[in-house]
Amino acid sequence: MKIGFGCDHSAVELKNIILEHLKAKGHECVDYGTKDPAVSVNYADFGLKVAEAVKSGEVEKGVLICGTGVGISLAANKVPGIRACVCSEPYTAKLTVQHNNANIIAFGARVVGSELAKMIVDSFFEAEFEGGRHAARIAKISEIEEKYSRKQDA
Q1: N or C, fewer C-beta in 10 Å, the chain?
Q2: 15, 13, 14: which is closest to 5 by C-alpha?
Q3: Which residues are the active-site residues?
Q4: Rounded to an integer, what distance in angstroms lies between the CA atom of residue 146 and that of residue 128?
Q5: How many whole angstroms separate alpha carbon 29 and alpha carbon 21?
Q6: pTM (whole model) above 0.90
Q7: Residue 115's closest CA among 44, 38, 31, 14?
Q8: Distance (Å, rounded) from C-alpha 95 to C-alpha 64?
Q9: Distance from C-alpha of 19 to C-alpha of 13, rounded to nearest angstrom
Q10: Could you tell me if 14 and 65 are in contact, meaning their C-beta atoms sit under 8 angstroms apart?
C-alpha cells in the first residue's frame, strides 16, 4: 500500500519511526513533511497535503501526527471524502476502518509512545471496511459534505 505521512515539528521523530516501521512491512511511504523539528510549522498545512494526496489517489491512505493528533486531523477532515480519525489505542484504529472506512489515521506524539503508535498503525492498516450497514452511514457523511459544499458554491 502507498501511504502518505504528514506531521508538524512536534512529531518529526515519531513520524520517522512509524514511517520506517511501515516500510519494513512492505508499504511504500511518501513523506510530505515536515522534516525539521527545530522549525515551527502549522500542522494544518501538512494535514491538507496528506488529505489532498489521499483524495487525488496519489496515495491510498495517510498517517498524520501532531502534538495530540486533533488539529492535524481537523484540517484533513475539511477535504471532502476524507475521514481522518484520531486514535490513541489499537481497538479504535481497527474499528475506524471497519465501521467508518477511515482513510487517514492520526495520533499525538505527546499522547502515545512509539511502541503504542506502531500497534495503532498496524491495527489500522490490517483492518478492512465491513460495508453493509456501515456503508449507509458513510453515505450519510458524504451527503453532509455535499450539502455544505453546495452552499459554498452558490
Answers
A1: C
A2: 15
A3: 66, 99
A4: 25
A5: 10
A6: yes
A7: 14
A8: 18
A9: 10
A10: yes
**Three-state secondary structure string covering the chain:** CEEEEEECHHHHHHHHHHHHHHHHCCCEEEECCCCCCCCCCCHHHHHHHHHHHHHHCCCCEEEEEECCCHHHHHHHCCCCCCCEEECCCHHHHHHHHHCCCCCEEEEECCCCCHHHHHHHHHHHHHCCCCCCHHHHHHHHHHHHHHHHHHHHHC
pLDDT digits (tens), the chain, 154 positions: 999 999 999 999 999 999 999 999 999 999 999 999 999 999 999 999 999 999 999 999 999 999 999 999 999 999 999 999 999 999 999 999 999 999 999 999 999 999 999 999 999 999 999 999 999 999 999 999 999 887 665 5
Residue that has been written with the C-alpha cell 512529531 in this structure: 11
C-alpha cell at 135: 456503508
